[in-house]
Amino acid sequence: MNAPTAPSAGQADLSRLSLNTATTKHLSLAECVSVAEAAGLGAVGPWRDRVQEVGVDAAAAMIRRAGLRVSTLCRGGFITGSEAGQIDRALADNRLAIDEAAALGTSELVLVVGGLPAAYPMMGLDHTDADASDRDIVAARQRMADRVGDLVPYAVERGVRLALEPMNPLFTADRGVLATMGQSLDLAADHPAQAVGVVVDTYHVWWDPDLRSSIARAGREGRISSYQICDWSLPLAANTLNSRGFPGDGFIDFPTITGWVAEAGYTGDVEVEIFNETIWALPGAETVQTMGERYAALVLPHLS
Amino acid sequence: MNAPTAPSAGQADLSRLSLNTATTKHLSLAECVSVAEAAGLGAVGPWRDRVQEVGVDAAAAMIRRAGLRVSTLCRGGFITGSEAGQIDRALADNRLAIDEAAALGTSELVLVVGGLPAAYPMMGLDHTDADASDRDIVAARQRMADRVGDLVPYAVERGVRLALEPMNPLFTADRGVLATMGQSLDLAADHPAQAVGVVVDTYHVWWDPDLRSSIARAGREGRISSYQICDWSLPLAANTLNSRGFPGDGFIDFPTITGWVAEAGYTGDVEVEIFNETIWALPGAETVQTMGERYAALVLPHLS
Q: Fewer CB within 10 Å, N side or C side of chain B?
């Protein structure tokens, strides 16, 4: 497939573009901040490992000094466990993530909710003997909803929103039993809009026949926490998690989906989160330049 | 993960179990019929290549002589094209498939509707220059619906139902823009229940948060064309199409989903369609024995 013809990103307004640190996986937080600032981006979306490496206060200061926003913090979640110890540990870790988000000055903590207990051994996760044969997705989804409820008061007190990330059904078993925006919004509806939001990640939701109406609903209900862009490329990588591509390299119709997000009233940052071994091997500045070009060609013209 | 402990399949009633010929990919139709009959199965679900090898009338006679039903014919579809020649060729091939289904005495012709034009080159499909950059999923879905409408009168005249198969979003781009049972039922609603049905294939729909209500709706509307069972196994195979497993080897909760299908009033065959290189390397009789054991353990007790 041909990459789109892009205007020079140097001429485009990249002030709503955000670099998720997983896109430049091998860069330190300081390096991510530096390449984002140099390219004229408006924000970064750090993962917690990169924040914890330098300490959350130093991370916050570094990002602020560069004049960048923190679009989201990635990630909390993994809250489908059923055993008391699993639940306590998951709640403690998510409270810490909420504290980190507050310290970084972002309102949006992305939650990847976790998969089926039967997949915990394969994922190297803390598990009981009973987990290994537990394929009950209905019960796992109920526990996820219960844990979100447990976390809401703590998050609201700190001005942080739990940003539910529905995941492509490719990942339902092992990473996220939350599969659609509609399901996420139904769960969110039990809580105030400033407490629980949803992430619109093109990779996860592009295929959804209800996507346009779900994005409109999310906008109407004030719950769009983040708009994240990366492409569905084929064939999938051997590690399917790392199959994402730059916008324009796969099968997603970015102009159309971006138009729906804009119609829904979203005015926040547009984050690029790509897991891809080939892209990880590129120099960070080159990755950010390509991000900017694709954003300028496929997304920015449809954002307003 | 441990395989379930099964009662001997020799003691179980396998009269509703059907062998899809893709499960024993390297067997001829005669060999498939022979192993299915020997194991006490009630039906086979042939693919068109296996039927065409011997001729449709000989195939029908062979299956009838063995006392087996034809649960479905696999498959028609690939109807998302936009160019006049593509449309004509797709309609002609689907009319031929309808004729073959009628000759085989099955009411159910499974349709895999096809993916985005942008994926046609990768799939080795007939395509135009414009197709290579066409990622418009909304338009592709409309063309699919239009072609179903074109085919309905021909199918109804021959007593054949177009059995829409929603596909796991893993395959939206390259194989099927129909992603959920709800979307399939909305499309079917424009046509009589004897004209358009839906396939409940566990591999494709197990993750759907609306699965229970969609199965109930399909039953209420008289549209369950087929119940097909195979498991979501991880990691995915290098060719992702071939990642399916025997029920019990992956992450799908067969007792629960089977219970929902039974509640919806389905009394038809339960077809096993597994694409898996390792299973294809087994002797056919061994594959059918394992199918029977897993069916007896995980599905049959929940079918009524």
A: C
